[in-house]
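Schema walk-through. Below, the input block comes first and the output block second. Nothing else is stored per chain. Lengths vary across the set, and this one has 551 residues.
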Amino acid sequence: MAPRKRARSDDRLHQDVEEQLAQDAPAGRTQRREDMAGIARRRAAHFAHFSEENAQEDDNVHAGGNTARTLGPWSSAVELVNARQAAAEQRNNKLLAATRQQVLDVEWTPSRDPQLGPRAACPVPALYDMAQHLLVRHIDAVTSLWGVPDSIRSRLAAAVCAQRKLSSEVAHLFGSDRPTELTLPDCTQLDPTAMLQLLGLLITGEGTVDPVAAEGGGLAGPGKAEKQQQPQQQPKQQQQLQQCRLERLELGHCGRGFTDGAAAALAAAGPFQHLTVLRLGGAYKLTDQGILKVLEAAPMLKELAVPSASRLTGACLDRLPAVAPQLCSLDLSNCRGLPGSALASVLGQLVNLNRLVLDGVPEVDAAVLTAAGRCPSLKALSLAMCPQVNDAGLTALAAVGRAGSTRAHSGLEELGLDECSYVTDQGLLAVTHVCKRLRVLSLKRCARLTDEAIAAVADKGTLEVLSVNAVHNIGLATIQALASSCKETLQELDISFCRGVPEGALGQLVDKCERLERLKLYGCSQLTKRFLHGHSNEGLVEVAGVNTSCL
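--- output ---
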């Protein structure tokens, strides 16, 4: 009973307090509440039925008079959009004014009337393209590719993957008939079971998978019970494996299906005496043990590419010279688990290596570049998006070349330094001074490079492909150097977002470089139809980036 009485007494106390507060409240508080309610009513009426004539008569509706921004979410959004468009127009006018000032310094007369418009392209597609488009469209209805050459199979597979139609059934279509090449750029729809069936069909010609053999590393073939009942089939299967003609295996985006189990199953079907090219893109489930088993089964391998294999460590690199002694090309891009010390120790042992891709590997430093410079046959080196690549590393690479004329990078023909933001003119000139036969140079987004340094590289007269995408310091000097020194060699040029390139100078370049076939001009707002339709180069088959806008 005591708790109930206490609760009643507490309620009575609260009521007394509220009654006393109501009696003591000043009269002005009630009036203030009525005033605020009136203001709220007028504001509600203003937003519901807004009229500019009555806006000045209503007090406390909005502050600021005619200079205030019109209230309401829609009006605010429209005002912000108009301000953004005005700012964009102001920036474009400033850029156009700056480029017009530079164009005045270059004289160029179009050899073709720009009023004629773009050059007419052939409206009739090639017969092969029409047939390929028809096959890709109805690839589910195709039952066999027997008799189709492997080169055409690879092109057809690329077109099918581009349309996202590579299912497990379609993959079996390309793996049948024991081809010498299998190129599937997009294997995202193949799970581990479908991958094992594809490899079994590719090697043995049979698409069935023994689950026990798959777990133990065996490929497709008859089960254990069938082997006991039909022992006479085993010599025939071994003869089929010995006659395997596979020379090239390329599986892109195969991380879902290509596991260590698939690697062990593939290795168990070896050895593959004719396999020379192995590319496994995006194999994020593949470990050191899996890749080593495959390499041991392919003693004649010359090209190895395992980009974005995040589980690979230095253990596979230590044994790479022993299991792949004839390796000529190595692609380890975006393998972020590789230590720099392992890379530096293994590169000096790959005596036949002529192509090395280390894009996106954070541990690439001066020691790794020094070791790469000691490869006696190296001709192509790509270091895109390597954060530790700087002038010191490139200078160390150049120092190895000065130590002896037989060093690799003295004959370096391809160099990629995309998005190496710490590279300046000093490092670029140091390495290109040693590379006397540089044909391909990619410097995308290397913001610290200047026009003079790239012009000095172009003066050597050996460049066939040059990319200076988003190198904002590029201007007249580089274009004139290319036009004078590389007019007989230049085939591809990417000057996207280089708004300091004059239109007249670019017109002279295109007219002089008769071998120029591809030109990329994304973001070059200073170029007009005078250049696009007025140049005389009939061999320029592709001009990308014109008539585009950023939303």
